[in-house]
Batch of 3 targets.
Target 1
Amino acid sequence: MTLAYWCVLVAILLPYLCTATAKFTGGDYGPRANSDPRAFLAGLDGWRKRASNAQLNGFEVTPAFAAAVIIAHQAGGAGQVLLDQLALAFIVSRLAYFVCYLADWGPLRSLVWIVGMGLIVSLFVVSA
């Protein structure tokens, strides 16, 4: 299995890091909150709300990343090292995105998001 494929697994798991941060860092997530976790998350504010928002964005972007990695492998137009580097750079961008979201650095977060989307596009372009 290639590093790029492992990065797909990491990308799948990253949103759960975000939601765990939102739910479990305040000490108020218990059995009552677990009966309706979406309502609990909707009622958060501040950096915990932003962690929940980062989770949602992670679930939105991960399918595109996974498709790009799979298609890049199948197309075979790029070397494996380059695919691995692009995939790893995407994971780094998602971690940076999460940090920017938590810190409420909106403009930087948007820039990091653009970089991540550019990396997805790059996986297609280098394999063409």
Target 2
Amino acid sequence: MSDTPEVRPPVVTPVRVIIGLCLVAPFVAMLWVGSYAKTDPAFIGIPFFYWYQMLWVPISAALTMTAYKLWQYDQRSPTAPQGGEAK
């Protein structure tokens, strides 16, 4: 017998799906340029194209923080798969 640990496929849980959505949302919002390639509505004189992108900076930070906190929660939960094998 070999001493190498058994390799298991990754487990998809609802928490991990939410984490993925939190991390993908900013990319989708920024890569879908047609949705914000316009000048109206302006906000305090700034065209929509610019303020929409700048609005996503704090939103992206909040979503990334949320994903990180959910990942920590998922790693601490008793049902989460453990990284090492017990001997």
Target 3
Amino acid sequence: MSTTRMPNPAMLINGAIEALMGVNKAIAGTGLDGKLLALSHLRASQINSCSPCVAGGVHQARQHGLTDDQVHAVAAWRETPWFSDEERAALALTEAVTRLADNADAVPDQVWDVAAKYFDQAELAALLLNIAITNAFNRLNVPTRQQAGQW
């Protein structure tokens, strides 16, 4: 793959990166477990093949106490014993919201209802914002070929 096409667009527009980071700060301030936010960020970034966000997600996951087994198995979370039901609900919601165009019913009731069983509306809002901001960063990094480790 070729090198970076241009700097991250959020760095080129005055105030954009600060605004995006402000959303991240607001999400972190909700009190939703950082481990869940890290898992969600890592899984969405894996789906979107965003190398800087995958690398950052691994770092974030370790900071929040995820084990090596968990970090290495995020992409195969359904087939492993290392995730709680709450974590699985967050991962399923993350996948559905990240892959909106893949299904006629983008976020099926079954996925939503399981998530709503574990998270109240404020926590669901934090999780959905986390998925959205992760996807925004992925959609800025991937087309401009941002590289992991080159910040």
